[in-house]
Every structure is written in C-alpha cells, then in structure tokens.
Design a protein that fits this description.
Layout lengths: L24 E3 L2 E3 L6 E5 L7 H14 L3 E5 L3 H13 L4 E5 L4 H9 L3 E4 L7 H15 L3 E6 L5 H7 L4 H16 L6 E6 L3 H14 L5 E2 L7 H17 L5 E3 L6 H14 L22 H12 L3
Parallel strand pairs: 3-4, 3-10, 4-5, 5-6, 6-7, 7-8, 9-10
Antiparallel strand pairs: 1-2
Length: 305
C-alpha cells in the first residue's frame, strides 16, 4: 500500500468563504465593515442613569475584550447621564433608543459613538428620519437600523403573516431608503429573530440586497447555555459564509459572558487570533484522573491570558 503525503498546514485554514464586501463605518475608534476585523459588542444591564454602576460594568466589559458597548436610554434621566458615560467610557458607547425619538438627538448631542434605533417601536419614526439624518451627519455619528422580530411594523406583519426573513429585510431596507433620501448612508443594519434559522436566512437575504455592514444577533436567545448554542449556530453559519461585521451574543447572563462567547466563536472560526486553548478529553473508562475537575482548574487558572 503506497503512502500519501498529506502535509501539515502551517497556517490556520481560512473560513469557508471570502468576507462579504461591505462599506466601512466608524463607531468611535472602531472600524466596522470593509476589511476591518469582526468586532465584539455587548450591552450593559445597569440602569444607565446610575452612572457609577454603568461605568463600572463598562470597565469590566472592556477588560474582558469587549470593543463596543450599548446602553439603554428609556428615560430622560438615562439621556442626561449619556454625556459623562460617553466621555469616561474606555470603549465606544452606542445609545439604544426605543419609543421616543427625542432621545436620538440627546444621544448625538451627548457624544455617543453611534445610535441604535428600532423603527418598529419609535413613534412616528419615518417622519423624524430627515431630522435624525441631519443631526447624525453633522456630528459624524452612524446609525444602526435595528429591526427586531418582536417589534416588527404592523404593516409588515399583516403583509407576511409573521416575522419572516423577507419581512425583516423589507423593514430594514425601507428605513435605509428613507435615510438615503436625505443623503445619509453612515448605516449598519441588524435583522434579529429568536429563531436561528429565520435569523440566518434573513441575513443571507439582506447580504444580497445591500452593502451596508451587518450587526449579527439572535434576539432573546435565552439563558447562558441555550443562548450560547443558538448564537453559535447562527453566527457560525453566517460568519463561515463571510457574512457579518460585528456581533453581539444575547444571553440572560452577566454581559461579560456574552463577550467570552462571542470571542470564542470568532476564535473558533479563525477570525481572531487564539489565546491559550485548553485541549481536554471528554473522559471515559480509561481515564485515571478526574478529567472534569482538572480541566476546570486549568481553565480557571488560565482564564484571561
């Protein structure tokens, strides 16, 4: 039997597909899209108006490798806290706006690096796009059009019957077209669903329809274990196809855990240089040591290196 020389690869294999071409925007100092590395985001769970707690959590996220952080702005008190948070945060801050368009302008004035808007639940959002576009353009602040299956425009729910991939994409592109009418294209898009299969198909469709950078996310993914599985399946499929420019793993868990999972997903796909990796067997009847305990102790000792 003749031998076959397979050789040993000297570099990590590339993902399955070349990266999708997208325009690049700047979220503060972090480039998103184009040839920039895929970035990892998270969101604070503190009351934003509690400035000290919010900044403390942002510091913890920064230490864990988070590159961009989002904060909720549901009230006037939260809006008033934005200037000091944006100024003191070590990483770019995105203001997450629902319901009240006035907080979009407050976030821009506060110096936030970007604003996320949910067009499905902001009152008379379409009527405000011109003003938002002018304010964002003047300040150099990008806008994320964040479409969410749970708050889809009722008109699209009526048209499609439910939050289908087509409905999510139509919503996103409609809102983008309104900004484009005012010459504003400093945009990134997300089309989130809690079903990974629907989410994957929505992003595949969206990637064919535009060149805006895409923010990947599975919304309402669930507790740590369930959410990790859902996000890993969805992100892995899309990133391996070259789709996705920034990611946020949504977990009902401390935000630092979101960053750990997101970073591990990128490392597993060769999209980020690996840190120390623990290689341990699943154990079996041949094991003569407590593999589980040993692996956990090594992981705890090396975490963060």
């Amino acid at each position: 039997m003749s031998s076959v020389a397979l050789g040993i690869p000297t570099v990590r294999p590339k993902p399955l597909a070349e990266r999708r071409h997208s325009r690049q925007i700047m979220v503060g100092s972090v480039p998103v899209g184009g040839d920039a590395p895929v970035s990892v985001q998270s969101m604070t769970t503190t009351v934003t108006a509690d400035v000290n707690s919010t900044l403390q959590q942002i510091a913890e996220l920064t230490a864990s490798g988070c590159q961009i952080v989002r904060v909720a702005v549901p009230s006037q008190d939260d809006a008033e806290a934005l200037p000091i948070i944006a100024r003191k945060s070590q990483i770019p801050v995105i203001a997450d706006i629902h319901f009240q368009p006035k907080y979009v302008f407050a976030a821009i004035d506060a110096g936030c690096a970007a604003v996320r808007v949910n067009p499905g639940n902001i009152k008379k959002f379409d009527d405000k796009v011109g003003e938002i576009a002018r304010a964002a353009s003047d300040a150099g602040v990008p806008i994320r059009i964040g479409v969410n299956a749970g708050s889809l425009d009722p008109r699209l729910l009526q048209k499609y019957g439910k939050a289908t991939p087509e409905a999510l994409v139509e919503s996103a592109l409609w809102e983008c077209s309104l900004f484009e009418e005012h010459g504003f294209r400093d945009i990134k898009i997300s089309v989130k669903h809690n079903d990974p299969v629907v989410m994957i198909n929505a992003y595949r469709l969206l990637a064919q329809k535009c060149d805006y950078p895409l923010h990947l996310g599975v919304t309402e993914a669930g507790p740590a274990f369930q959410g990790t599985i859902k996000s890993s399946v969805a992100f892995g499929a899309l990133l391996a196809e070259g789709i996705g420019d920034t990611i946020r793993v949504s977990l009902s868990a401390p935000p630092v855990e979101e960053v750990k999972v997101g970073t591990q997903i990128l490392e597993s796909l060769g999209l980020r240089e690996r840190g120390l990796e623990i290689v341990s067997c699943p154990s079996c009847g041949r094991a003569q040591v407590d593999v589980y305990t040993l692996a956990d102790r090594v992981h705890a000792g090396l975490e963060g290196m």
